[in-house]
Amino acid sequence: MAAKREMWGSRFGFIMAAAGSAVGLGNIWSFPFKTGENGGGAFLILYLIFIAVFGLSVVIAEMVIGRTAQKNPVGAFRALGGKAWPLVGYLGVFTGFVILSFYIVVAGWTIAYIGFMASGALSNPDATVLTDTFTGFIGGGVTPIVLAGVFMVATAAVVLGGIGGGIERASKLLMPLLFGLLLVMVVRSLTLDGAGAGLRFFLVPDWSKVSGDTFTAAIGQAFFSLSLGMGALVTYGSYLGRDTNIGSSAGIIVLLDTLVAVLAGLMVLPAVFAYGLDAAAGPGLSFITLPAVFAAMPGGMIFGVVFFTLLFVAALTSAVSLLEVVVTYLIDETRLTRTQATVFAALVCFVLGIPSSLSQGAMDITVFGRSFLDAADFLATNLLLPLGGLLTAVFVGWVLGPRAVAALTNNGTTGTALAPIWLWVVRVVAPLGIGWVLITGLL
Ligand code: TRP
Fold first, then answer.
1. Cut 0.85: pTM above it
2. If we measure between CA atoms, which residue out of 359, 367, 348, 308 comes closest to residue 100?
3. Residue 155 and residue 319 in contact, taking contact as beta carbons nearer than 8 Å
4. Which tens digits make up the pLDDT trace of 399-439?
5. What is the tens place of the pLDDT at every residue in 82-134?
6. Ligand 1 pocket test target in 321, 378, 392 with most atoms within 8 Å of CB
7. Ligand 1 contact, 321 CB (< 6 A)
8. Whose CA is nearest to atom 14 of ligand 1?
9. What is the Å distance from ligand 1's center to 91 Cα?
10. How far apart are alpha carbons 166 and 42 in whole angstroms?
11. Residue 367: enclosing H or E segment and its boundaries?
12. Rounded to an integer, what distance in angstroms lies between the CA atom of residue 408 and that of residue 391?
């Protein structure tokens, strides 16, 4: 207990680690396919609105909670709110297990795709061939499960070593590299024959496609992509120094994450149309279109290997933040050591991941008409994260209130003009808005 709490090496390091948590499979894998499933441009606009209004304000809210309490989410809500509030922390820990269980499955696919790219197995740009390769692989039974296990072990290894040196340093180097490669891919994708239709699909809203489900999917995606609603940023914020400017840090993190998602959309969707694929094809979208783009570009094999390697790294820095929440909680609140907590949490997630992986073709495991993986994603992303975000906003707005404003402005020294607007958003706008989307989505 008495040991001094670790702190981020620098503000830049913190921003890179938080951006490393935010930028992951959510941006490059799920954002393009969810945009495709939900009608394109209209989804993009809803997503951007939700990010700007609810996303940014709840990112700030989580950081304020973390830095004020300097504790894991359960402990932080208990210390600051007492009574029933720790339940929000428990909800977050539970959500972390659910997300990690399917996240490792998809991350395992990226490992396979590094190998497929390197071996030349994806050199035929024909969409049907690439689709068959993908469905054949994910439905293959044992191999995808083993790779999910490999990814889980890699994540656990980083968490075992502590975040300071490893993750902070790796993120600072690899995130800019991923960004650069993304730009190259966007240019390649936009210059393909027939890319225009994809660009139009992505940027021009077709409001006739919008329903309650579109709202639910957009808000869920916003929370998922920003790593919000389950205490990850409470945990990262708990390692922040007293004088860090939370408002501007949050702004940068949100901008970076949104930029990467939009770039991923510009990379994947034009290619989908250029190759005559179905934009609503679901989780396989990136894994089918990107190899098609690589196969058709000079040096594509090398770009492909590098790209899937970086996607793997992006997924790793995100998964680490998910596992860290669970592990920090277990260390603080039970008698487990970091090693025991990490091994235990990783094992549980891996076991939970097995039905997700099998549900992709090897076995017919469905829940409410969705594959087990999609169901876990839907439950966590569309329901639990927005719920966690809503409760976080209410907590900061109504329980902390003026204390939160003092924390955000570093006792009235920075951002004093914007803080009252923020307080109003977390008190009124966010709870009503998120609540409304959640309820219409359920009905
Ligand atoms: N944001 C990450 C992504 O886009 C996933 C993630 C990491 C996450 N930590 C989280 C999602 C916490 C929700 C909550 O891939």
1. yes
2. 348
3. yes
4. 998 888 888 888 877 777 888 899 999 999 999 999 998 99
5. 889 999 999 999 999 999 999 999 999 999 999 999 998 888 888 889 999 99
6. 321
7. yes
8. 227
9. 15
10. 39
11. strand 366-367
12. 19
